[in-house]
Amino acid sequence: MQFTELTTEEFEQFTRTHFSHFTQTVDNYRLKIEQGVETYLIGVKDGEAVKAACLITLTPVMKVFKYAYTNRGPVMDYSDKKVFDTFFEGLNDFLKPKKVMHVRVDPYEVIKKRNHEGDILEDSGNRYIFDYFKALDFTHEGFSVGFDPVVQIRWHSVLDLRGKDGKAVLNDMDSLRKRNIKKAQKHGLHVRYLGLDEIDVFRKFMRDTSEMKSFTDRDDSYYISRKQHFGDNVLIPLVYVNLDEYVASITKDRDALVKNISKANRDLEKDPANSKAEKKITNLTAQLENIEDKLQEGRTLRETHGNELPIASAYYFITPHEVVYLAGGSDNDFRHFAGSYLIQWHMINYALDHDIGLYNFYGISGDFSEEAEDYGVIQFKKGFNATVYEYIGDFIKPINKPAYRVYQSLVKLRERIGR
């Protein structure tokens, strides 16, 4: 068993058949190489059999040295200590001559599964990994909560689709999710995918949403470059309203209400003391006013926007292991159409149709209080019956200890003087 560099074919075959993050893909390797990032495919082989694989990047730090990052890797069976030790001992020797100051490792390993109140549902029983890292002089960075512009988020909201069909998945959702999905399907909402030439449509939704919710979005180049290199492994669904269908559907609802009101009026005429009929007329009339408003809105929108009204879009990474909802935005003026719910439902069905076991709603803060900055997002994901995956976190190892001590001192100094 030995540490070695891997061919792209060896790396791709292993990561496609072993659970891994979308950053541990040949698509991402080719992207990094084109961007000029020093990138290697490394791993462990036992004879001809690959036992571990990792895409690792090296970036400059302090002009002379480099910082190594394993990009949610390595991909391996962490319970196999022989493979573990072979990889990380080999990694140390591999990085030393490359002037690497320190390496950051953030395994894509779940340590606990929780509900969206933060209660533990399942412990993965893999705390031995901490001991394995400690024995090789790695330091754990702690159990972080919140968002960081550099470090990967430690909490995901994930829907396990294995062994389920669409009906079972829908039945497990809360009433709001079910109602909004059915409403969107009924009232002329459709989904299509945007190509690279239409990515500005998605970007506009993201800019509007980030401004409204006051968060910092990735820049255009991130989304464009990933779509260029990941190809069909990045999907950008757009939900739009077919306004002809919407007006027809609302008209049908209105006609049904008018018919029911007429019947209730006849019942009241036959029996003026029929309080049930009187109450029904009052309720149905209020509903009719709401329906008439929707009908007028649909007609007005059709006049100003034409028949197709884009209302929301999202950005997804697709791997053999999971469908990852990276980001999404919508037009706040048209949120009542429930377009964001239909996108989620459409992509959940994409995962089911392609036999992909996990639907990953992606990052949440890990703060489950009502004061959490993403409290609304957590509640949205919770409603789909997702489970919170808590990941193991980051491990740091100095490769050049004297240089790393100097680097840490400089970082602390900058923090003190506010730079």
UniProtKB/TrEMBL annotation:
Residues 274-301 form a coiled coil. Keywords: Acyltransferase, Cell shape, Cell wall biogenesis/degradation, Coiled coil, Cytoplasm, Peptidoglycan synthesis, Transferase. It is an enzyme of class 2 (transferase). It catalyses: beta-D-GlcNAc-(1->4)-Mur2Ac(oyl-L-Ala-D-isoglutaminyl-L-Lys-(N(6)-Gly)-D-Ala-D-Ala)-di-trans,octa-cis-undecaprenyl diphosphate + 2 glycyl-tRNA(Gly) = MurNAc-L-Ala-D-isoglutaminyl-L-Lys-(N(6)-tri-Gly)-D-Ala-D-Ala-diphospho-di-trans,octa-cis-undecaprenyl-GlcNAc + 2 tRNA(Gly) + 2 H(+). The keyword Cell wall biogenesis/degradation applies. Its EC number is 2.3.2.17. PROSITE patterns: FEMABX (PS51191). Its main location: cytoplasm. It is found in: Cytoplasm. It comes from the Bacteria. InterPro entries: Acyl_CoA_acyltransferase, FEMABX, PG_Glycine_Bridge_Synth, tRNA-bd_arm. PANTHER family: AMINOACYLTRANSFERASE FEMA, LIPID II:GLYCINE GLYCYLTRANSFERASE. Belongs to the FemABX family. This is Aminoacyltransferase FemA. It comes from Salinicoccus jeotgali.
